[in-house]
Amino acid sequence: MDRSISSCVAMAWHDDANLVVRQHRLLMIVGAPGCGKSWYAKRQAQQATGRPAVVLRGTPKTDLVHVWGGRVIGDNMQTGFADGPLARSLKSEDWLVVEELNLIPLETRGYLLDLRGEDSITNPITGEVIHISPNWRLIATANSDSVACHRHSGVAAALIDDFIVIDVADLSPSLLKEMLVDNFPTASMKLIRETIEAWSSFREVGETSDAGGDAPSKLNFRSASHYLKLRLAGMTPTKATRYALVNKHIIDADRHTAALVKAGLS
Ligand SMILES: Nc1ncnc2c1ncn2[C@@H]1O[C@H](COP(=O)(O)OP(=O)(O)OP(=O)(O)O)[C@@H](O)[C@H]1O
Ligand SMILES: [Mg+2]
Predict the structure, then answer these.
(1) 158 within ligand 1 shell (Cβ under 6 A)
(2) For residues 38 and 44, what is the distance between their CA atoms, to the nearest angstrom?
(3) In this structure, which ligand is nearest to the CA of 221?
(4) Are the CB atoms for 86 and 68 separated by under 8 Å?
(5) Is any ligand 1 atom within 6 A of the Cβ of residue 143?
(6) Could you tell me if residue 48 is left (phi over 0), alpha (psi between -120 and 50 degrees) or otherwise beta?
(7) What is the C-alpha to C-alpha distance for residues 25 and 159, in angstroms, rounded to an integer?
(8) Residue 10 CB: number of other CB atoms within 10 A?
(9) How far is CA 202 from its chain centroid?
(10) pLDDT tens across 172-192, in order?
(11) Under DSSP, is residue 8 helix (H, G, I), strand (E, B) or coil?
């Protein structure tokens, strides 16, 4: 097991998610980027089955072949069928982690509806009927900023309807501290404190209550870990602030300018 799976900071919602997966087949975790959705899903799958999760990364181009599998030509030039992630995980009873389920087109998701409580599902490409073990689980992740899709049709709602949905709160400085200690065991407390202070002051910059506009982007654990990584490598605080914190706001010109001004870098 790699370190990323074996070590773990307990988060407030983990116990609830553990309870859900003990009782129910379909769990969805919704939260901001970097809040620990994938980390939890993979770790929980590994702990429950003793084997890594099968992972399907959802995109707007995910089609039936990505989910169920496709025809392949073997060494002997014979054609065969290679199961995709869903079929493989159902057969092996390894848990399936579907990243960004909400990005998968509705026509692909429509073939997943039998996952809602049925004890078998048909591979729409081969017609094979696959048993769904009572031990099998699907943990889906979705980013809170992209989950609210205005094109939600009946299919999307019907599938989501049988997921238990856990929403993950924003990162607090105290949780950030625990995560930094866990991820950087060699860093001094002085450097960890410096990182939290720098991260906190650039976490949000500029206008935050922009009525009708996009929700303000917030720096997450990854930005803090980038800052600490650069500092551990010997970079000055000013440069690390610029590259790991200030420039994370670069996709919004106004916020980026505000962050540069705040850092005295404009
Ligand atoms: N429970 C935890 N304990 C320690 N570190 C964690 C924990 N959860 C997450 N992390 C750290 O935070 C990083 C980001 O977590 P993760 O990849 O799960 O975020 P995510 O919510 O899936 O983000 P995205 O939406 O961008 O995919 C991980 O790579 C890991 O370093
Ligand atoms: Mg993720």
Answers:
(1) no
(2) 10
(3) 1
(4) yes
(5) yes
(6) alpha
(7) 12
(8) 9
(9) 23
(10) 999 999 999 999 999 999 999
(11) coil
The secondary structure of residue 52, as a DSSP letter, is P
Q: Residues lining ligand 2 (ion), CB within 5 A?
A: 38
Asked whether residue 38 carries a pLDDT value surpassing 60, the answer given is: yes
Structure token digits, residue 84: 């995709």
| Residues 4 and 39 sit within 8 Å (Cβ to Cβ) | yes
Q: Are strands 120-122 and 129-131 parallel, antiparallel or unpaired?
A: antiparallel
- 33 CB burial (10 A radius; 0-12, 13-18, 19+): middle
What does the alpha-carbon distance between residue 180 and residue 193 come to, in Å, rounded to a whole number?
10
Q: DSSP 3-state assignment of 153?
A: coil
The CA distance from 233 to 235, in Å, is 6
For residue 68, how far is its CA from the centre of ligand 1 (angstroms)? Answer: 27
The 10s digit of each residue's pLDDT in 95-125 is 999 999 988 998 899 888 889 989 999 999 9
How far apart are the CA of 33 and the centre of ligand 1, in A?
8
Check pocket membership of 39 for ligand 1, CB cut-off 6 A.
Answer: yes
What 3-state class would DSSP assign to 130? strand
Query: Is residue 28 a contact partner of residue 142, using CB atoms and an 8 Å limit?
Result: yes
Q: Which helix (H) or strand (E) holds 69?
A: strand 69-73
Q: Which atom of ligand 1 is nearest to the CA of 14?
A: 1
Using alpha carbons, select from 217, 218, 238 the residue that is nearest to residue 173.
218
Helix (H, G, I), strand (E, B) or coil at 16: helix
34 CB less than 6 Å from ligand 1?
yes
Distance from the alpha carbon of residue 214 to the mean position of ligand 1, in angstroms: 23
